[in-house]
Amino acid sequence: MEPAASIVPDSEHKGLVALLPPFPRDLALLARFDRPIGWWLLFWPCAWGVFLAGGTNRWGSVLWMLLGAVAMRGAGCVYNDIVDADLDARVARTAMRPVASGAVSKKAAWAWLLALCAVGLVVLLQLRWEAQVVALGSLGLVAAYPFMKRITGWPQAWLGLVFTWGAPVGWVEVNGFDQLAPLAALYAGCWAWCMAYDTIYALQDREDDAMVGIGSSALSFGRHVRAGVIGLYAMATVCWAGAVWLVRPDPLALLVLLPVGVQFAWQAFTLDTADGGSALARFRSNRFAGALMAAACFVVGAAGQA
After folding, report:
1. What is the pLDDT of residues 70-79, one digit of tens each?
2. Using H for helix, E for strand and C for coil, what is the string for the chain?
3. Does domain 22-305 have CATH number 2.20.25.110?
4. What's the predicted TM-score (pTM) here?
5. pLDDT of amino acid 96
6. Which of 35, 48, 91, 249 has the highest Cβ tally under 10 A?
7. Cβ contacts of 182 within 8 Å, gap of 6 or more
8. Which residues fall within 8 angstroms of residue 56, CB to CB, at 6 or more apart?
9. Which residues of the chain have pLDDT under 50?
10. For residues 105 and 162, what is the distance between their CA atoms, to the nearest angstrom?
11. pLDDT in tens, 5-51
12. Quick check: 256 and 244 in contact, CB under 8 A?
């Protein structure tokens, strides 16, 4: 097992969160407000969908989706921690999460979940009705996700469906249900991207997950984790190239994906699968990868409107 010092716990008092009184601080930790990487990863596909669909001037929609990503990522974390409290208490990295440690009761956690969902509802009402329908379609996927690790060795495959749902929402917000072929390619790439980065993230917990008896793609890939990550990032890049081509069939347009492809290659080929710190750093670097992809989608979307 890795030494505890190499594992970054999932509950830390740092930044502005550390200045809060104890109970509000615990609620902030429960929603992972101290860890913005999660809502960036949830938000970026929303922006990609908007920009690639040609909504490069739809900054109001993008900002609403950013708020929705912060609120709904927090709600998802609260729901996940309620369901997983017994498992989290048995894993070194998650044992001090507020519900698992008893700092926040499940009753208080449910109330906090409803408050965050209320913010999400406000954001939902800002979208066109087609995008509202698509957004609501994710609820079943979200509700089922915490149970996937109990019944499959590939819960990251389910997370890929859930955590990138913003891409269809963003696309439909701009184009409605028209021209769905580029969206299909975009979403397939998003799925592979999410599965890759969460496989990297799960490397931190391989030993504990094996002892507790829950599934993880980091375990299921076995000795082939790096190859799996390379394959998934390659799939993401190819699918996104297809989406770009369908929007703007110009070989030069594909060059916009070069920076994000290089970033993926850096992650995969420098990853030390035995080092939790290496895995966490490369997982977090996907915030930058998301920004590179957003720039690519903006360029292609703007050119498509010219």
Report:
1. 999 999 999 9
2. CCCHHHCCCCCCCCHHHHHCCHHHHHHHHHCCCCCCHHHHHHHHHHHHHHHHCCCCCCHHHHHHHHHHHHHHHHHHHHHHHHHCHHHHCCCCCCCCCHHHHCCCCHHHHHHHHHHHHHHHHHHHCCCCHHHHHHHHCCHHHHHHHHHHHHHCCCHHHHHHHHHCCHHHHHHHHHHCCCCCHHHHHHHHHHHHHHHHHHHHHHHHHHHHHHHHCCCCHHHHCHHHHHHHHHHHHHHHHHHHHHHHHHHCCCHHHHHHHHHHHHHHHHHHHHCCCCCHHHHHHHHHCHHHHHHHHHHHHHHHHHHHHC
3. no
4. 0.90
5. 85
6. 48
7. 52, 53, 171, 243, 246, 247
8. 298, 301, 302, 305
9. 1-8
10. 26
11. 344 455 555 677 877 888 999 899 999 998 899 999 999 999 999 99
12. yes
User: How far is CA 75 from each of CA 80, 113, 120, 209, rounded to the nearest angstrom?
Assistant: 8, 5, 9, 24
What per-residue confidence (pLDDT) applies to 9? 54
What one-letter code names the amino acid at 305? Q
Q: What is the distance between the alpha carbons of residues 113 and 77, in angstroms, rounded to a whole number?
A: 9
Structure tokens at 141: 């996927």
Amino acid identity, position 71: A
| Nearest Cα to Cα of residue 257 among 248, 156, 124, 99 | 248
